[in-house]
Amino acid sequence: MNWGMKNRISRIIKPKSGRCVMLAVDHGYFQGPTTGLANLGKTVEPLLPYADALMITRGAIRNWIDPAVDIPIILRVSGGQSILKELSNEIITTNIEDAIRINASAITCSVYVGGEYEKETIDNLSKLVDEGEKYGIPVLAVTAVGKDMARDSRYLGLASRICVEIGAHIIKTYYTEEFEKVVEACGNVPVVIAGGKKLPEMEALQMSHDAISSGAVGVDMGRNIFQSDNPVGMIQAVRAIVHESKSVDEAYEIYEGSKK
Ligand code: R5P
Description:
eight-stranded parallel barrel; two-stranded antiparallel ribbon
């Protein structure tokens, strides 16, 4: 791996802990103005001091994020579908030159293993990896799941491993029981979990804790942070689990305590 690639990864996955808290706010690319992100800038601004990286599209970054901000950007460069149609029907929406102009620390696309457009989404990933390797920009592959697809360790291990074999530098997948099998399937490639739909805060913290205990290097979490009744407390609590190995109860106290 070249110097630039290593440097960009170490901006995202902090060398001190070997872990990371990514804040995902790219939902609008197929969900439109998701609850909590209609005014993306207002939601994100108080959370930025606690996030190690921001996952976002180029349109959202130019509209709502101050270019003076000091946070690594994971640029969502795939899209082309909506919640009204087949989710796996993605194309690459942003070229590598624009990712470089934005000063992206990583680029990202979704891969729908088992989905109708499985091959096309794997093709998207392979092209991004080729471009990323050329310019030293790591690629984070999201193992996206269609509406009716299983989320067990067998499926997620299969999907994640395919992304590793194609050359992804970081894998984002969903937490499931026996998550250590998914991590094992990824070899030396770091794995982070998505939060998924909004859960009660205690459950989201437990899931983060279980993922870290099973070998994930962190989270790439969206709705369970910005749709919380206390988003700043929630990201601080997740951070305490990820970077300081705090227990779920300790983290929950951080979430509750910051409400006062
Ligand atoms: C999914 O493909 C997108 O990257 C989502 O924005 C991301 O997975 C969302 O994170 P969460 O599921 O924690 O809201």
